[in-house]
C-alpha cells in the first residue's frame, strides 16, 4: 500500500495538471507574438519554471497568471529579437509550424496564424502585436488584455484598432483553405514544368517573392517584385525542380510543400493569395527553420511533457 502524497507533492501534481492543460494556449500566444516555434518553446519552459516557484496558493486565476507571464516574456524576447534580426541577411520569414494534427496551434481560434499575417504583425511593436494576438486569436476581453499589458482598457482598444488598420486588403480578403491549396498546387505544377506563362496567370501584377536563407547561396537576398520577375525566378534554375521531391504539408493552417533533396528536407514553400491571385510566394531555405518545422511535427505528442 502506497503512502498518501504529502501536501507539497499534491500541490505540485495539481500545478503540473493545470500547466499541461493550458500549455497549448501558452505556446499559441508566444508563437504568434514571436513568429518562432523555438523561441516560443523557450518562453513556455520559462513560464513553467516560474509557475513552479510561485506561491500558487495566492493565485486567484491560474489561466490569467500563466497567460500574463507568457505574454510579458514573449514581448521581452520579441524586443531583443528585433535587434538580432537587424543583422539577418535577406528577408526574414516566421518559422512555419506543422498544423496537420493541431490546426490552431493551441488556440480557440485560428486567427493570426498564417505566415503572411505573422510577417505583417512582425512590423508592429511587440506590445501592439501581443494585444492584437490576445484579442483576435484568443478573444481575451479588453480589460483582461489591459491587465496583462499593464495599460488602460482605453489604450488597449486604441492599440488593437491601430493594429487592425495595418492589415492590408490582401490579408482581409484571403482565399479559403481549399482555394489556397488549388492555387499552390497549380503554382508548383507550372514551376516544375518551367511554364512561365501559366505562373504569370496565377500571380497578381505586384506579386512578391521572399526567400529566407540568412545569406545562404541560392536564396535571393532582396524581395523580388512583379509578376514577370517572380515567375521567372521560380523557373530560373532548370536543374532545381528535377532534383527535388515535393511533399505536400500543412503549415500554419494552410497548404505548403516541403522540397526534399537527397532524401532530406531542404526547402519549405507556400503562397498567400486572394481572389485576385497569388500575391506572395514564400521560400524558407534556412536550415534551422526547416529543422524547427520537422520538430514541430512531434510537438503535439510532447505537449504533455513539462
Features:
306 residues, six-stranded mixed beta sheet, 12 helices, 50% helix
Characterization of the model:
The chain has 306 residues and is of the alpha+beta class. Helix content is 50%, strand content 15%. The protein contains twelve helices and six strands. It has helices spanning 7-34, 37-53, 62-84, 115-121, 126-137, 142-149, 153-165, 169-172, 177-193, 196-202, 227-234, 287-296; strands spanning 203-212, 224-225, 245-251, 254-261, 264-274, 277-284. Strands 2-1-6-5-4-3 form a six-stranded mixed sheet, sandwiched between helices. Mean pLDDT is 88; it is low at 1-8.
List the helices and strands and how they pair.
Elements: H1 7-34, H2 37-53, H3 62-84, H4 115-121, H5 126-137, H6 142-149, H7 153-165, H8 169-172, H9 177-193, H10 196-202, E1 203-212, E2 224-225, H11 227-234, E3 245-251, E4 254-261, E5 264-274, E6 277-284, H12 287-296
